[in-house]
Design goal:
Blueprint: H1 5-17, H2 22-29, H3 33-40, H4 49-58, H5 63-73, H6 79-83, H7 86-106, H8 115-125
Amino acid sequence: MPDWQAFGRALMEARVRRGLSRAELARKTGLSLPFVSRLERGQRGVSQPALVELIARVLQMEGEERVRFYLYAANLPEELASLLGREELVGLLAGLMGVRDRAAQEAGMGHVASLGRLLVALSRGA
């Protein structure tokens, strides 16, 4: 079972640094307040790349903060950010998220956002 504690902590810290309440973040992202609360408590993760991108954009994450947020969203250890170069990291995330996208499409879940948007956002912010 994935551990979403690091993702939840990163989300909450980014929100607090920007002076937003949970309710404001929920409103700006279109998420429900209970869902945002579960994310911050590490009870849920985000499996849709477009949603990860939306949250990062709303919170105006950039650079290393954004890279670490994507790592946490993929449930990967943050040490990868320091061990891998940016191109290797993007390739690794592409592979992992691509597998998830293909599996979702095969399961008839065409609403899952394309990996391309996540990678474009990562390349702009990192």
